[in-house]
Amino acid sequence: MTTPRITLGVSLKMYFSYQQTLAWSEEVAALARHHPAIVSGEVGLFVLPSFPALPAVLAAFADTNVVVGAQDLCQQDNGAWTGEVSGTMLAEMGCGFAEIGHAERRRYYGESDELIAAKLAASLRNGLTPVLCLGEPDQGSSQSAIALCRQQLDASLQAAREQKLSGHVILAYEPQWAIGAATSAPDDFIAEVCHGLREFSGLGEFTFSVIYGGSAGPGLLSRLGHRVGGLFLGRFAHQPSALATIVDEAAALAKTQEASWQ
Length: 262
Prior knowledge:
- The protein is an alpha/beta fold and 262 residues long.
- The chain has one domain: Aldolase class I (TIM Barrel), CATH 3.20.20.
- Helix content is 44%, strand content 17%.
């Protein structure tokens, strides 16, 4: 499969019941089996359900190019960590991604920079692609957002560097003030910050792609164009029909990128 030109991710958070998760996954799997951009790999799609649904969701997407991952993982690979799920087990199950450092984990569960760094290292150590969430708590200038995201990124890579790990990291720029809002951050603001994050790509042994999250929905990718590498979607993709619209937008964008390279 080719390297995706556009990457889309969907977190189901804790919105769905078990049966709702399965029904959504079956509908999206049907889309993925037949959509030319997903079949070709030009548009990459990953899905992050709740932990208990992972085996069934992995089965639902088994014959597609959709990659399934987890919304969190433990910083340790095994041991007396009651209630936690290790990257070792996630990889053994067939997961390919692990979300790390979401604003809700930072806010409600007190996740520190050190813990997030340990989780990112655990993800890379187990062959999982980290989806590292970055974003400022309060709305300000794009330059201040870039500076804070750079601090968060540097802190998040510390443990991986110490362990001499390498790999690809998806940077999900999610300004905390836009999460759960009625609309996303302003288009030009998103573009400026994502451009600033792409300039981090020279950080030694790590490679990065930059996607935007934070009340992202249909229409946003078409407006942003190639100024972002994709979207990290939440509730606005919980209707399969809305996700299908976004996949169509991503496919059209991938085609314009292909044409510009010819």
